[in-house]
Design a protein that fits this description.
two-stranded antiparallel sheet; 11 helices; mainly alpha; about 240 residues
Length: about 240
């Protein structure tokens, strides 16, 4: 039986803050589904990992763009192309491939392993779900992380893929240390130390998006993780 294609959601009025958070909400989805963060510095490309990493990036781009073309309106679809000549897949592969270099380094040093079957199971569940179902949440098949790390809580990391639990953020942000913006501009620091931490739950006090399990701190409180379609179709 062929499933009827759902109508894309109509463009919804959003305030300027919400629209500006498109990148943050996509990052929240990456944290929720992938469990990985950007590296503190670009690692040297290892000999073994590129094939696994390419599989992760290609499959993720197919997942995102499949949902966008099926469930988002044309305004939202346009957000996923860098120019008129590039496809959604090109844009997502480029963005993911450059922001998740920490995953590449983690795979190359054996501090993380990639589970392709889990990612494919999530992709299949997303494809099988209707747009209306995705309005309310993510399929259970996407609850399992795609990467298994070896770095315990509190220890130094370069990517969330390395963490046994939680994810990898700057130590100062995890400890809620105030930012000295003038000092930062005058005396740029060395790459900051990053550690594996358990993120704050929804409703907890926060000062930074990276402290929250939803990767979204609004008015000093961790807000709920956006639904799949809220992340994919912000307008």
């Amino acid at each position: 039986m062929t499933r009827e294609k759902a109508e894309p959601r109509a463009s919804r009025p959003r305030n300027g803050s919400r629209t500006a958070q498109h990148g943050t909400r996509l990052a929240a989805l990456v944290f929720a589904l992938v469990g990985c963060g950007s590296a503190k510095e670009e690692p040297d490309e290892p000999d073994r990992a590129p094939e696994e990493y390419a599989t992760f990036v290609d499959l993720y781009a197919d997942m995102v763009c499949g949902l966008v073309s099926r469930c988002c309106n044309e305004v939202n679809q346009a957000l996923y192309t860098l120019s008129g000549d590039e496809t959604c897949e090109d844009a997502v592969e480029l963005t993911t491939g450059t922001t998740q270099l920490g995953v590449l380094g983690a795979l190359g040093t054996d501090s993380a392993t990639y589970d392709e079957e889990r990612q494919r199971a999530c992709a299949a569940a997303l494809e099988a779900a209707t747009c209306e179902e995705l309005e309310t949440g993510t399929p259970p098949a996407c609850d399992e992380p795609w990467f298994e790390g070896t770095v315990p809580l509190g220890q130094e990391c370069t990517s969330s893929a390395e963490c046994v639990e939680g994810y990898c953020i700057e130590e100062a942000r995890a400890r809620r240390e105030p930012k000295d913006l003038i000092g930062f501009l005058l005396f740029p620091p060395d790459p900051p130390k990053m550690i594996c931490v358990v993120p704050l739950p929804v409703g907890a006090d926060c000062t930074d998006d990276a402290q929250c399990e939803s990767f979204s701190c609004e008015d000093d409180v961790c807000e709920a993780t956006p639904t799949t379609l809220d992340a994919m179709c912000p307008i």
